[in-house]
Amino acid sequence: MRTKQDKLIITILIIYTALILYFLFFGVGRPGAAVGNNEYRFNLIPDLIQLRFPTLSDLKNFRVFDLGNFAGFIPFGLLIPRLYRCKFIRFIPLFFLSILIIETLQMLTYLGSFDINDAIVNSLGASVGFCAYKIGFRFKSIWKELVVTAISIVVLSTAIIGFSELLNKSFTKIEGPVIALNELESNSNLPVDKNLQSFEIGDEKIEPKINVYGSEGDNVEVLTYDFDGKDIVLSLNYGIPDNASDYDGKVVISVDGEEVETYFNKDHASSEFNIDKVNELTITIEGNAKLWDVTFKEMKYWWN
């Protein structure tokens, strides 16, 4: 027979569940976004745990969605075990299955997407609530139980988010120092212009600071560099000088024989883009095109 306390907990659980379901299916403009959408959106491959401590900028601009996905499900771990005595090994698989069903409904109704990462973060939140409840309920005094449970939530949440940040940083590549392209050896005999003389493009004075590559007339210059499978961020500037005999020129960036970027207009263009797993980088310069201040940064793990 249910006690008054159980009935109160059931009422709170029903109301809270309704609020969560409303947010999941009708919050943040989901119905409007679903209009005209006829494609299922899903992510079946889990990434690293998408949790991190919010910065002041996140709090100011309300960018705490992932943290909300975590904290919003802690109450389920607190309330459900009070009604149904169960062990963690039974509770969390059933809870995870329930979240998967909700994620599937979001996808099928076009009111969201199926995201395995969300299901994992939701379940972590419920796990924190469950463990905090198990720690706190041992105390007979209701006030001691509440205090210990609250402290347990803070400690466990901090530990999980901290571990998530450490894991993410350990397996996320970061940019290394800027390196001039001319510091690498090329198979081309094309000399690098070390004078770095200024020139004009579109009446704008260009003053290279690192390097200059170019060709003239009908010439075609090809530079090839070996990167041994590295992930890099390539930066460059392109243009055709105003004093060129004509404005015909082109630069093609290829990686392992596949073209990834092409520049062929007269105007000055600056570009920076990521290239993954580069073995051979080839730069083809045609006509009166010029490249200058060409650099790269290697992407690597902090522990490298």
UniProtKB/TrEMBL annotation:
Keyword rRNA-binding listed: no
Keywords assigned by UniProt, alphabetized: Membrane, Transmembrane, Transmembrane helix
Family annotation (Pfam families): VanZ
Domain of life of the native organism: Bacteria
Keyword Membrane carried by entry: yes
The name this protein goes by in its record: VanZ family protein
Domain VanZ-like: 14-135
Species this protein is from: Amphibacillus indicireducens
Chain segments annotated as coiled-coil in the UniProt record: none
Residues that span the membrane, as ranges: 7-28, 67-84, 91-113, 119-137, 146-164
